[in-house]
Amino acid sequence: MIYALDVLGFSIMDAHFYLLIEMSPGDMFVNEVVRRRFMLPHKKGAQFPYGKIDHL
Asked: What pTM does this model have?
């Protein structure tokens, strides 16, 4: 599990799409867990965007 959301449904149209998601509660993860999960799908050496995400 990397992301803090569940895809509940989707619909693909000719020129756009709809995505129905459910976000996990913001207090479910501590900052270090968010940083670790950020690094999983990114290349080695990627930098976490400190200061760009106000609540982290």
From this structure: 0.42
